[in-house]
Amino acid sequence: MRVVLFGYQKWGSRLLATLLESRHEVVLCVSHPESLGGHEPAIFQEPVADLAREHGIPVLYRDKAVDDELVAAIKEHDAEIGVACNWRTWISPEVFSAPTHGTVNTHDALLPKYAGFSPLNWALINGESQVGITAHWMDADLDRGDIITQRTVPVTPTDTTEDLFFRTVELFGPLTIDALDRVEHGPHDWLRQDPEHASFFHRRQDPDNRIHWDRSAKDLVNLVRAQTGPYPNAWCEHEGRRLRVLEASVSRNRCGGTNGRVFAREGTGVIVVAGPDAWHGDQHGLVLQRVKDDNDVEHVAGDYFRRMGDYLA
């Protein structure tokens, strides 16, 4: 089929590479300006437009895909189907309906759960045992169209969001090829998303990464794992200065006291009291293993905390 790709960064580039090796023909590439990504991590940076130009595919840049000129370009190139991958803003119904068959969106979650933003981060925070990607029809509601096909990826107890990113980004191409095959040859029994099982998440911002010591140690470990690597780290305050947590674990023994109290060493780390009703002493604490101070210097937590008894806000 003749494809118009709405793609951005490494997700879009890897998908385009797969399409170029397939029997399908990419006739137009629509991408965001590279400036839209701002100061995002280097692991995401792989301009899809560069690969498109190398193969003689015309490229259009848009912040939002909403204009009549774009609709005209899609029709001029006789696009039969659209494919969207890591498209960050709105695609209007006029645009996603311009290809003959409409537009397929790919989303890095097992819809209907984790629609919206930062799905891999939120899934790790919530302790999910698997994540995945979904190819679904684009309609007027964000990430709510009928599901064409999905693939799952297991989550291990030590995985970070960066691990899951590298594990899922290579699946967007094969998943899309599967979806296009089904569109062409069937079966056409699309799965309607059940709103009773749907969840929608907002974009993560700095306050979302703040450690609240009244949450369980297990939940806080998940938060740290979700925000390691290139993502803004989980953080707290020590003596009025920001302290980022790079690695953490659940303490071996239960402990009690006041939330946020640094009170004992465990291996090379330090235990911080955490959890709801922590004063009862029936919950495990959070062991800080590696931290980074506000001068961007990384420390083994046991070396950073010279004395016990400090409080983390």
What do these coordinates show?
The strands form 3 sheets. A 7-stranded mixed beta sheet has the order 3-2-1-4-5-7-8, with helices on both faces. Strands 10, 11, 12, 13, 14 and 15 form a 6-stranded antiparallel beta sheet that branches. The chain is an alpha/beta fold. The chain is elongated and about 70 Å long. The chain is built from 9 helices and 15 strands. The N and C termini lie far apart (56 Å).
Task: Give the secondary structure arrangement, pairings included.
Elements: E1 2-7, H1 9-20, E2 25-31, H2 48-54, E3 59-61, H3 68-76, E4 81-85, H4 93-96, E5 103-107, E6 115-116, H5 119-125, E7 130-137, E8 147-154, H6 161-169, H7 172-185, E9 200-201, H8 217-226, E10 234-238, E11 241-255, E12 262-266, E13 269-272, E14 283-292, E15 298-300, H9 301-304
Helix pairs in contact: 1-2, 1-7, 5-8
Features:
alpha/beta, Methionyl-tRNA formyltransferase, seven-stranded mixed sheet, Formyl_transf_N_sf, Formyl_transferase-like_C_sf, 313 residues, methionyl-tRNA formyltransferase activity, EC 2.1.2.9
